[in-house]
Amino acid sequence: MIALVTPSLSDLWEAGQQVYDAFNPATASGIALDNIVALSGISRFASRKTTAQCVVEGDFGSSVGTLARARSITSLQTYAPTELTAFNAKSCVGVGVSVLSVQNNTAYTIRYTNDVGVTYTTFTITSDATATSTEILTALMNYVNTNAGGVVKAYMKNNFMYIERLDPFQVVDFEVSSNLMFSKSLKLATFECEIIGPVEEQANTITGIAVPQIGWDSIYNPLKADTGRIEETDEELRERFRNAKFTQASNILEALTS
Q1: Whole-angstrom Cα distance, residue 54 to residue 37?
Q2: Which of 92, 215, 219, 238 sits at 20 to 30 Å (Cα–Cα) from 16?
């Protein structure tokens, strides 16, 4: 008889205790703790994945879609782009150009907008009487590096002349004269680790391509990735709640009341 009656009574007493504890930050847990710390404008940190701002390079006109995957050379974790990135001349870190038509004694121009897209910085060279594609690109590269003012750099790679921002997080729009053409594009893209939780990624560690896509050449992360985390535990949330009360106090009376 006792065994039949007491389990229900026990459940009621435990439920009553949980309700009582829910009003005390030191004893509340789960949703009850979330509700009580919300009175101080605090919410539990959710779990999230490690994310990295990466520079991707690819053929002009192609793209990197959400099915692509990159890989870290240190953690060996795979990273997925959060959205499609199109390789074009808009909002670029840099571009690779080639000569569309070789012409003697002709102007060749490449230019880009400033950071807010209002005015253009222009680089123009004039080919000589015996111009070649390599000579034109080399002359344009040298002219850019001489007059760039520490904002962009130019270099040759795979028979293309690249012009790239020294600060990859200040993207710009590029244009070229009709006798030049865009062949490569460097864009900023956000990549997210495929597992939830903390994964440490230093700069230049996400450099591998795990699942390639046509036209996608390379990837690197210029800065340390934003490390993910697991969901904030009850004890971590209580500690942050206690600390927040002290920092919000403006004098001794409010501090005591808090």
Answers
A1: 36
A2: 238
DSSP 8-state class, residue 148: S
The pTM is what? 0.79
Residues 232, 83, 217, CA angle at the centre, nearest 5°? Answer: 115
The residue to which tokens 């890989």 are assigned: 71
Amino acid type, 58: G
60: left (phi over 0), alpha (psi -120 to 50) or beta: beta
Residue 239's identity, in one-letter code, is: E
Q: b/e per residue, 172-197, with b = 16+ CB within 10 A?
A: bbbebbebbebbbbbbbbebbbeeee
* Separation between Cα atoms, residue 4 and residue 23, nearest integer Å: 32
CA distance 117 to 114: 5
- 34 vs 36: CA distance, rounded Å: 6
Q: What is the rounded CA–CA span in Å between residue 42 and residue 240?
A: 9
Let me know: does 181 contact 100? Beta carbons within 8 Å. yes
- Give the pLDDT confidence of 72-126 residue by residue, as tens digits: 999 999 999 999 999 999 999 999 999 999 999 999 999 999 766 678 899 999 9
- The answer to whether residues 171 and 93 touch, using CB atoms and an 8 Å cutoff, is yes
139-161 per-position pLDDT tens digit: 999 999 999 888 999 999 999 99
Amino acid in position 115: D
Structure tokens at 3: 């065994």
What is the C-alpha to C-alpha distance for residues 135 and 143, in angstroms, rounded to an integer?
12
Spatial separation of the C-alpha atoms in residues 206 and 52, rounded to whole Å? 9
Decide: helix, strand or coil at residue 166. coil
Main-chain dihedrals φ then ψ at residue 219, nearest 5 degrees: -155, 145
